[in-house]
Specification:
Layout lengths: L2 H16 L4 H14 L9 E7 L1 H5 L6 E8 L9 H9 L3 E9 L2 E11 H6 L11 H4 L4 E5 L1 H25 L6 H13 L10 H8 L1 H10 L13 H22 L3 H13 L7 H5 L1 H14 L5
Parallel strand pairs: 2-4
Antiparallel strand pairs: 1-2, 1-5, 3-4
Helix pairs in contact: 1-10, 7-8, 8-9
Length: 302
Amino acid sequence: MCEAFERPLLELIAPELEKPVPPEVRSLADEAVRRAGGRTSEGGGIVAVLFYGSCYRDGVVSDGMVDLYLLADRYASLHHGLLSRLTNRLVPPNVYYVQCSYGDRIVRAKYAVLTLDQFARRMQPDCRNPYFWARFAQPTGIVEVDEAAKDRLQQVLVRAIRTLHGHARCLCGNATNAQDRWVGVLQETYRSELRVEKPERAAQIYRSYQSRFDAIDTILASTPIDPSISRSRRLRRCEGKVLSVLRLVKAAFTFSGGADYLVWKIERHSGTTVELSDWQRRHPILAAGPILWRLWRQRIVR
Protein backbone atom coordinates (compact mmCIF):
# COMPACT_ATOMS: atom_id res chain seq x y z
CA MET A 1 0.00 0.00 0.00
CA CYS A 2 1.30 3.44 -0.90
CA GLU A 3 2.18 5.22 2.32
CA ALA A 4 1.20 8.60 0.84
CA PHE A 5 -2.43 7.47 0.89
CA GLU A 6 -2.28 5.21 3.93
CA ARG A 7 -1.29 7.84 6.47
CA PRO A 8 -4.10 10.38 5.82
CA LEU A 9 -6.66 7.58 5.79
CA LEU A 10 -5.37 6.26 9.10
CA GLU A 11 -5.54 9.76 10.57
CA LEU A 12 -9.08 10.16 9.23
CA ILE A 13 -10.46 6.97 10.79
CA ALA A 14 -8.43 7.08 14.03
CA PRO A 15 -11.20 8.89 16.00
CA GLU A 16 -13.70 6.21 14.91
CA LEU A 17 -11.45 3.35 15.96
CA GLU A 18 -10.61 4.96 19.31
CA LYS A 19 -14.12 6.14 20.16
CA PRO A 20 -15.07 4.80 23.62
CA VAL A 21 -17.68 2.06 23.35
CA PRO A 22 -20.76 1.96 25.59
CA PRO A 23 -20.31 -0.22 28.69
CA GLU A 24 -23.16 -2.46 27.50
CA VAL A 25 -21.17 -3.26 24.36
CA ARG A 26 -18.09 -4.08 26.39
CA SER A 27 -20.13 -6.48 28.53
CA LEU A 28 -21.47 -8.19 25.42
CA ALA A 29 -17.98 -8.39 23.94
CA ASP A 30 -16.60 -9.98 27.11
CA GLU A 31 -19.33 -12.63 27.06
CA ALA A 32 -18.86 -13.29 23.33
CA VAL A 33 -15.09 -13.66 23.75
CA ARG A 34 -15.61 -16.04 26.66
CA ARG A 35 -17.94 -18.21 24.58
CA ALA A 36 -15.62 -18.15 21.58
CA GLY A 37 -12.66 -19.46 23.51
CA GLY A 38 -10.97 -16.55 25.21
CA ARG A 39 -8.35 -14.01 24.37
CA THR A 40 -4.92 -14.59 22.93
CA SER A 41 -3.28 -17.68 24.31
CA GLU A 42 -0.77 -20.24 23.15
CA GLY A 43 -2.29 -22.03 20.16
CA GLY A 44 -4.81 -19.34 19.20
CA GLY A 45 -7.38 -16.98 20.55
CA ILE A 46 -9.29 -13.76 19.97
CA VAL A 47 -6.96 -10.87 19.11
CA ALA A 48 -9.54 -8.16 18.30
CA VAL A 49 -13.20 -7.28 18.73
CA LEU A 50 -14.88 -4.81 16.36
CA PHE A 51 -18.12 -2.90 16.88
CA TYR A 52 -19.96 -1.73 13.77
CA GLY A 53 -23.39 -1.47 12.16
CA SER A 54 -26.53 0.47 13.03
CA CYS A 55 -26.00 0.46 16.80
CA TYR A 56 -22.56 1.97 16.30
CA ARG A 57 -23.83 4.54 13.81
CA ASP A 58 -26.93 5.53 15.79
CA GLY A 59 -25.37 5.28 19.23
CA VAL A 60 -28.39 3.32 20.49
CA VAL A 61 -27.72 -0.05 22.14
CA SER A 62 -30.56 -0.83 24.53
CA ASP A 63 -33.30 -1.54 21.97
CA GLY A 64 -31.17 -2.87 19.14
CA MET A 65 -29.01 -5.82 18.19
CA VAL A 66 -25.32 -4.97 18.59
CA ASP A 67 -23.03 -6.15 15.77
CA LEU A 68 -19.64 -7.50 16.82
CA TYR A 69 -16.77 -9.17 14.96
CA LEU A 70 -14.34 -11.40 16.83
CA LEU A 71 -11.02 -11.90 15.04
CA ALA A 72 -8.81 -14.83 16.02
CA ASP A 73 -5.16 -15.45 15.28
CA ARG A 74 -6.20 -19.02 14.38
CA TYR A 75 -8.99 -21.45 15.13
CA ALA A 76 -7.05 -24.03 17.10
CA SER A 77 -8.18 -23.01 20.58
CA LEU A 78 -11.67 -21.71 19.83
CA HIS A 79 -14.61 -23.47 21.48
CA HIS A 80 -16.18 -24.71 18.26
CA GLY A 81 -16.27 -28.15 16.70
CA LEU A 82 -14.44 -29.34 13.60
CA LEU A 83 -17.51 -28.97 11.38
CA SER A 84 -18.06 -25.41 12.60
CA ARG A 85 -14.45 -24.47 11.84
CA LEU A 86 -14.68 -26.09 8.40
CA THR A 87 -17.83 -24.22 7.41
CA ASN A 88 -16.27 -20.99 8.65
CA ARG A 89 -13.35 -21.52 6.30
CA LEU A 90 -15.60 -22.32 3.34
CA VAL A 91 -18.37 -19.73 3.86
CA PRO A 92 -17.27 -17.21 6.46
CA PRO A 93 -18.26 -15.94 8.88
CA ASN A 94 -20.00 -18.09 11.46
CA VAL A 95 -22.53 -15.96 13.34
CA TYR A 96 -23.71 -16.53 16.91
CA TYR A 97 -26.12 -14.89 19.34
CA VAL A 98 -25.27 -13.61 22.80
CA GLN A 99 -27.18 -11.73 25.47
CA CYS A 100 -26.35 -10.60 28.96
CA SER A 101 -27.78 -8.54 31.77
CA TYR A 102 -26.75 -4.95 32.12
CA GLY A 103 -28.33 -3.17 35.03
CA ASP A 104 -32.04 -3.98 34.98
CA ARG A 105 -32.27 -4.88 31.30
CA ILE A 106 -31.13 -7.47 28.78
CA VAL A 107 -28.80 -6.39 25.97
CA ARG A 108 -28.28 -8.50 22.86
CA ALA A 109 -25.70 -8.95 20.13
CA LYS A 110 -24.86 -11.10 17.20
CA TYR A 111 -21.19 -11.80 16.79
CA ALA A 112 -19.22 -13.20 13.89
CA VAL A 113 -16.01 -15.19 14.32
CA LEU A 114 -13.21 -15.61 11.79
CA THR A 115 -9.45 -15.31 11.68
CA LEU A 116 -7.63 -12.05 11.09
CA ASP A 117 -6.04 -13.66 8.02
CA GLN A 118 -9.47 -14.44 6.56
CA PHE A 119 -10.66 -10.96 7.39
CA ALA A 120 -7.66 -9.41 5.63
CA ARG A 121 -8.03 -11.53 2.47
CA ARG A 122 -11.65 -10.47 2.02
CA MET A 123 -10.77 -6.79 2.02
CA GLN A 124 -8.71 -7.14 -1.14
CA PRO A 125 -9.99 -5.60 -4.41
CA ASP A 126 -10.08 -8.99 -6.13
CA CYS A 127 -12.69 -10.18 -3.62
CA ARG A 128 -15.82 -9.84 -5.74
CA ASN A 129 -18.33 -10.23 -2.92
CA PRO A 130 -18.66 -6.99 -0.90
CA TYR A 131 -20.00 -8.66 2.25
CA PHE A 132 -16.86 -7.76 4.22
CA TRP A 133 -15.21 -4.75 2.61
CA ALA A 134 -18.46 -2.80 2.16
CA ARG A 135 -19.26 -3.13 5.87
CA PHE A 136 -15.86 -2.26 7.24
CA ALA A 137 -15.17 0.62 4.89
CA GLN A 138 -17.88 2.31 6.94
CA PRO A 139 -17.20 3.73 10.42
CA THR A 140 -16.09 0.99 12.81
CA GLY A 141 -15.05 0.94 16.44
CA ILE A 142 -12.47 -1.23 18.17
CA VAL A 143 -13.69 -2.66 21.45
CA GLU A 144 -10.33 -4.24 22.10
CA VAL A 145 -7.27 -5.33 20.15
CA ASP A 146 -4.09 -7.19 21.03
CA GLU A 147 -1.15 -4.81 20.69
CA ALA A 148 0.64 -7.19 18.33
CA ALA A 149 -2.33 -7.14 15.93
CA LYS A 150 -3.20 -3.43 16.13
CA ASP A 151 -1.13 -2.13 13.20
CA ARG A 152 -2.24 -4.90 10.90
CA LEU A 153 -5.90 -4.43 11.81
CA GLN A 154 -5.71 -0.72 11.05
CA GLN A 155 -4.11 -1.44 7.67
CA VAL A 156 -6.84 -3.98 6.87
CA LEU A 157 -9.55 -1.43 7.61
CA VAL A 158 -7.79 1.12 5.40
CA ARG A 159 -7.65 -1.54 2.69
CA ALA A 160 -11.43 -1.98 2.99
CA ILE A 161 -11.91 1.74 2.38
CA ARG A 162 -9.67 1.71 -0.67
CA THR A 163 -11.44 -1.35 -2.04
CA LEU A 164 -14.91 0.17 -1.66
CA HIS A 165 -13.73 3.43 -3.20
CA GLY A 166 -12.17 1.56 -6.12
CA HIS A 167 -15.44 -0.26 -6.76
CA ALA A 168 -17.31 3.05 -6.51
CA ARG A 169 -15.17 4.57 -9.24
CA CYS A 170 -15.39 1.44 -11.34
CA LEU A 171 -19.13 0.77 -11.04
CA CYS A 172 -20.29 4.39 -10.81
CA GLY A 173 -17.97 5.92 -13.36
CA ASN A 174 -20.65 8.26 -14.65
CA ALA A 175 -21.17 9.86 -11.23
CA THR A 176 -20.33 13.55 -11.25
CA ASN A 177 -19.79 13.99 -7.51
CA ALA A 178 -18.77 12.10 -4.36
CA GLN A 179 -22.33 11.65 -3.14
CA ASP A 180 -23.47 9.87 -6.30
CA ARG A 181 -20.42 7.59 -6.22
CA TRP A 182 -20.81 6.57 -2.58
CA VAL A 183 -24.58 6.19 -2.65
CA GLY A 184 -24.39 4.30 -5.92
CA VAL A 185 -21.80 1.80 -4.73
CA LEU A 186 -23.57 1.20 -1.39
CA GLN A 187 -26.82 0.50 -3.24
CA GLU A 188 -24.97 -1.89 -5.52
CA THR A 189 -23.53 -3.79 -2.55
CA TYR A 190 -27.05 -4.19 -1.11
CA ARG A 191 -28.13 -5.82 -4.37
CA SER A 192 -25.52 -8.53 -3.88
CA GLU A 193 -27.18 -9.69 -0.66
CA LEU A 194 -30.66 -10.57 0.56
CA ARG A 195 -31.01 -7.07 1.94
CA VAL A 196 -34.11 -5.54 3.47
CA GLU A 197 -32.71 -2.00 3.41
CA LYS A 198 -34.98 0.76 2.18
CA PRO A 199 -33.82 2.44 -1.06
CA GLU A 200 -32.86 5.64 0.78
CA ARG A 201 -30.68 3.83 3.33
CA ALA A 202 -27.47 4.37 1.35
CA ALA A 203 -28.16 8.10 1.10
CA GLN A 204 -28.79 8.25 4.86
CA ILE A 205 -25.44 6.60 5.59
CA TYR A 206 -23.66 9.02 3.25
CA ARG A 207 -25.32 12.07 4.82
CA SER A 208 -24.50 10.88 8.34
CA TYR A 209 -20.79 10.77 7.48
CA GLN A 210 -20.61 13.15 4.53
CA SER A 211 -17.40 14.89 5.58
CA ARG A 212 -15.73 11.51 6.08
CA PHE A 213 -16.79 10.10 2.71
CA ASP A 214 -15.91 13.34 0.91
CA ALA A 215 -12.48 13.37 2.55
CA ILE A 216 -11.84 9.78 1.43
CA ASP A 217 -12.88 10.72 -2.09
CA THR A 218 -10.39 13.58 -2.07
CA ILE A 219 -7.54 11.50 -0.64
CA LEU A 220 -8.00 8.66 -3.13
CA ALA A 221 -9.08 10.69 -6.17
CA SER A 222 -5.80 10.22 -8.03
CA THR A 223 -5.15 6.57 -7.14
CA PRO A 224 -5.38 4.12 -10.05
CA ILE A 225 -8.29 1.69 -10.10
CA ASP A 226 -7.01 -1.76 -9.25
CA PRO A 227 -7.26 -3.95 -12.38
CA SER A 228 -8.43 -6.93 -10.31
CA ILE A 229 -11.75 -5.23 -9.51
CA SER A 230 -14.57 -7.12 -11.18
CA ARG A 231 -16.85 -5.05 -13.42
CA SER A 232 -19.51 -7.75 -13.74
CA ARG A 233 -22.60 -6.61 -11.81
CA ARG A 234 -24.55 -9.74 -12.75
CA LEU A 235 -21.85 -12.13 -11.54
CA ARG A 236 -21.39 -10.14 -8.33
CA ARG A 237 -25.11 -10.20 -7.58
CA CYS A 238 -25.56 -13.89 -8.35
CA GLU A 239 -22.56 -14.90 -6.28
CA GLY A 240 -23.65 -12.66 -3.43
CA LYS A 241 -27.21 -14.05 -3.35
CA VAL A 242 -25.89 -17.63 -3.23
CA LEU A 243 -23.49 -16.80 -0.41
CA SER A 244 -26.28 -15.02 1.48
CA VAL A 245 -28.47 -18.12 1.31
CA LEU A 246 -25.61 -20.34 2.47
CA ARG A 247 -24.92 -18.02 5.40
CA LEU A 248 -28.60 -18.08 6.37
CA VAL A 249 -28.60 -21.88 6.32
CA LYS A 250 -25.50 -21.95 8.52
CA ALA A 251 -27.04 -19.45 10.92
CA ALA A 252 -30.01 -21.77 11.41
CA PHE A 253 -27.60 -24.12 13.23
CA THR A 254 -25.51 -21.54 15.11
CA PHE A 255 -27.79 -18.59 15.75
CA SER A 256 -30.19 -19.22 18.61
CA GLY A 257 -33.34 -17.20 18.04
CA GLY A 258 -32.30 -16.53 14.45
CA ALA A 259 -35.82 -16.70 13.00
CA ASP A 260 -37.09 -14.04 15.38
CA TYR A 261 -34.00 -11.92 14.73
CA LEU A 262 -34.65 -12.05 10.98
CA VAL A 263 -38.24 -10.89 11.53
CA TRP A 264 -37.05 -8.09 13.83
CA LYS A 265 -34.53 -6.97 11.19
CA ILE A 266 -37.13 -6.95 8.41
CA GLU A 267 -39.65 -5.02 10.49
CA ARG A 268 -37.06 -2.51 11.62
CA HIS A 269 -35.80 -1.69 8.14
CA SER A 270 -38.93 -2.07 6.05
CA GLY A 271 -41.79 -1.26 8.42
CA THR A 272 -43.46 -4.52 7.36
CA THR A 273 -44.83 -6.88 10.01
CA VAL A 274 -43.96 -10.56 9.53
CA GLU A 275 -45.71 -13.18 11.65
CA LEU A 276 -43.99 -16.49 12.33
CA SER A 277 -45.76 -19.66 13.32
CA ASP A 278 -44.39 -22.00 15.97
CA TRP A 279 -43.55 -24.46 13.18
CA GLN A 280 -41.53 -21.83 11.33
CA ARG A 281 -39.57 -21.08 14.48
CA ARG A 282 -38.84 -24.79 15.01
CA HIS A 283 -37.87 -25.40 11.37
CA PRO A 284 -36.19 -22.22 10.10
CA ILE A 285 -34.48 -23.93 7.15
CA LEU A 286 -37.70 -25.42 5.76
CA ALA A 287 -39.58 -22.19 6.40
CA ALA A 288 -36.94 -19.85 4.96
CA GLY A 289 -37.70 -20.53 1.29
CA PRO A 290 -41.45 -19.71 1.37
CA ILE A 291 -40.88 -16.68 3.62
CA LEU A 292 -38.16 -15.21 1.39
CA TRP A 293 -40.21 -15.90 -1.74
CA ARG A 294 -43.20 -14.07 -0.28
CA LEU A 295 -41.07 -11.12 0.80
CA TRP A 296 -39.38 -10.96 -2.60
CA ARG A 297 -42.75 -10.91 -4.39
CA GLN A 298 -43.79 -8.07 -2.10
CA ARG A 299 -40.50 -6.29 -2.94
CA ILE A 300 -39.51 -6.22 0.72
CA VAL A 301 -36.38 -8.33 0.10
CA ARG A 302 -34.60 -7.17 -3.05
